[in-house]
Each structure stands twice: as C-alpha cells, then as structure tokens.
Amino acid sequence: MPRVVSVYLPTWPTDRHRRMLGQQAPPADQPLVMIAREGSRQLVAAANVAAISAGLRIGMPASKAQALVAELIIEELCPEEDRKELDRLALWFLRNYAPIVAADPPDGIVIDTTGADHLHGNETLMLSGMINRLFAMGFTARAAIADSWGAAHALARFSAKPCLVVPEGEAAQAVLDLPIAALRLESRTVAALRTLGFDRVGELAATPRAPLALRFGPEIGRRLDQALGRVAEPIDPIRAAEAIEARRAFAEPISATETIARYVRMLVVRLCAVLEEQEIGVRRLDLILHRVDNTLQVIRAGTAKPVRDVERLTKLLCDRIDTIDPGFGIEIMVLSAAHCEPLEAVQTISSLIEEPEAEIGGLIDVIANRGHRVYRVAAVESDVPERSLAAVSALAEDDELGWPVEWPRPSRLLLHPEPIQCMALLPDHPPVSFTWRGSRHAVKRADGPERVFGEWWKRDKELRAIRDYFVVENEAGERFWIYRQGDGEHADSGSGSWFLQGIFG
User: Fold this and answer.
1) What is the number of domains present in the chain?
2) At CA 106, angle to CA 176 and CA 198, rounded to 5?
3) Tens digit of each residue's pLDDT (9 = 90 or more) over 194-219
4) Other CB atoms closer than 10 Å to residue 2's CB: what's the count?
5) Could you report the per-residue pLDDT of 150-195, keeping only the tens digit for each?
6) Source organism's superkingdom (predicted)?
7) Are strands 330-342 and 280-291 parallel, antiparallel or unpaired?
8) What CATH number corresponds to the domain at position 281?
9) For 260-268, what is the mean pLDDT?
10) Is residue 80 assigned to a domain?
11) Contact 213, 220 (CB under 8 A)
12) Domain for residue 294, yes or no?
C-alpha cells in the first residue's frame, strides 16, 4: 500500500523572508505580514505566528492590520520567489528522504515514502526528524503520513497533531471528521457547500454524488475519492537539473524479475561510465519504474562512501527487486544519481609490498539498505562521560582524540545514569554499600574520587556543578562506576545524590 507524506509550512512566506535576511531579520516575536495587491486594495497574504497571535488574519486589509498592531512589519509578498524556494526545499527532501518528491504550492511538500521509512527508523521518527530539521532551518512545519496524497494533505493542515501517522488502511476513516475545506476545493465552492449545510467531509461523503455533480461539476467527487484513497493521484516528481540519469524505454512492457534485474545492470553500467568521466561517485541511487497505469515504483539505495562500482551498485538495487509490484508492466526505467561526491581513482596497493586492507564497505551498504543502522563510536572532547562519545559513520576516518587513560573507564556505559542509594562518609569517602535496581551491594574495594567539573561554557547551570566518580567492587568481584553529584560540602555544587553510570568487565 502506498504511503504519502504531506509537509505543511503554515508560515512559509514569512519564514522564508526571515531566513533570507539572516542576521538582519527582525525578532521572531515581532509581528510580520506579507501583503499582496488585489485590484486597488492591499491585503494581508501571509502572517507569522506573532501576527496571528495579535489578531491579524489572511485577507485582512493591510491598513486595518497596521492600525491594530502598532509595531507591525509589512513586506511585499514575492510569490515567484516563494515558489522557487519551495522547489529548492523539495530537492532537499529528494536528497535526504525519498525518490518521489514534489512541491505542493503554495505552502507544502508531498513525498511518496513507500518503502523508505525503514531508512530513518520508522514513520514516526521520519516525520519528527523532518519537522525538527525544518525547525532548525527556521521553518514552522506540520506533517502527516497516510495512504493517499489527499488524506495526508488534509490531515497535515487540519489535524490537531503537528506530527501524525495514520496506520495503513485507516486514512479514509481519519478524514471523515475534518472540515470540507480540507478537500482542496475552491473557496467559493466551500462557501456554497456550507450554505447548503455541509460542514464535515463525512457529511459530504454520505451524500449522493449526482446532485452535487449536477450543481458543482465533477471536482467534489474527484477530491473526495482522492482523500478517501479510492483513486490514485500520481505525484510528478521533481528532478535536480544536474542529476545524472540513465534511462530505458521499452516497446513492450516488462514485468519478470529476471528481466528487470538484467536492465538494472545495463543502466548501472551506463551510469557508472558517466560517473567515471566526471570523477565522482554516487552516495544515493534512485531506480524509478514507470508502470503502464501511470504510477511509479521506486527503489532507493544509499552508500556509506562515494561508489561507482558496477557490481556493488547492481547488488544493492537487485536485492530489493522483490519489493517491486510491476502491475501490468513497466514501460520506462530511470536510474538517477540523487547525490554524488568526488571520487578520484586510487591505485591498488600491491600485495607484494603490504597486506591490503579488507574492504567492508559493500557489506555495510547491504546491511544499511535492509533497514539497519550501522555505525561506530568515536571519542568527543568532553570530560562529561555521556558527552564523550558519539555515533559516526561506520566508514568515517579514524580520529586521534581517544579516551582518557589516566583513570579507568567501564566497558559498558548505561544509556542514562541510574539513581542508587548509598551509605558513605562525606566528603571524600567512597560508599560502604549501595542499592541498585533493588539489590544491595557491599563495597569491598574502591578507588577515587575522580572529580569532573561541569562544562560551564555550554550551560550556566553547570558553572559550579561537580561530580566525584568512584570505581567500586562488590563481594562477588563485580566492578561498577558510580558518582556523587556535588563535592559533599557546598550545596550549589550538586544535590549529593548518587548514580551508577557504568559497569566494568
């Protein structure tokens, strides 16, 4: 079943304007509106959150808005620039999330994520990641995923949740209680329907189609069917102008798995030849299959490092051919290098000189494209243990930072330090015993304290924060890494509570 994401940018024009101004942008809490001319009148065409909170609304005369809010900032709306930037944002989604992405003017993006959510954990993590990354770029966003474009579009704009995942098969039921404005109908049609007493999508869906079609034409029925998932709504995907593609059209549609795999290899050979000429390698590869029923099937493959090896790329794509539904046949195949990076030819080291390093990139790519996250842990320059490491790419270059060697570190750090109950003499003595997860441990040996100070340059609250770490061993020979918040003397250095953060051995 298809899965479609609709990303809604409710304050797109004002957010884009502030992002364009950069450091010169007005404060986010200052009301800002964009105006457009309609005949001889100037109307509010867009408003930021602060302006809406101040009581301004879209369609209000600009003079009235200025009279209501004294410090209102007024700028001219630039619909052409907004559309161009929306296309650029769609390209960003194309590179980072899925092969089928299109702008949904004037304030949205539509993405077919069928089969792509596993690359981001799951659908919930994928949606929340989209919203968070857009927020970091300065854009307010809402998102919904459903079985159809119409349902996702309606829920993103009219649902109470900013991030909504509708389970497969439940999209039709989810939209019935939404207002009829969610159906993407013209405003005059919505007004006429409300005059007739229609308020919710469910009321409209339960009404016979013939009278509605006789009065309003086929548009209402079409939009209803799209929202309820009864008819397909193809997405015309945006493509980067500089994208490298290999294309094959068939006189007779193909559908056999072996035939598809054979032509995939042919396209990979052609694509790699172009990549070699430009001295680049592919990091993200999209196989787009156009079916005879005007729908698309896609496979996306990613690599940990730039690659242009024919066998390796062919395997990544062919491993997922079983996920393709050819329907009544495939008439066009397009292989697109969605993301490329420089890759210069490297001379192979002779085995007579030294032992060549094992190449594990192919294995990592296969595992990652099956939905598993592959990474390694690297050191981060920080004295605070939970901040001293980070997950990096499995093939990232080695760093020379390393971890402290003056004091022992446990082989296992807990995800979060867990509180324990201790008996100890203050200020510098280790505990005599401690209780963790309901079990009491008598301390036979201990080493410490190792004092760790808070990183005051990151957070004001850590200006006087102190931790005293101890390595303790119980009667069974098990060793634990525990710490006390504070120095045991000054209240502003910490609460004096004890925590267990790691286990040795």
Assistant:
1) 2
2) 30
3) 999 999 999 999 999 999 999 999 99
4) 20
5) 999 999 999 989 999 999 999 999 999 999 999 999 999 999 999 9
6) Bacteria
7) antiparallel
8) 3.30.1490.100
9) 95
10) no
11) yes
12) yes
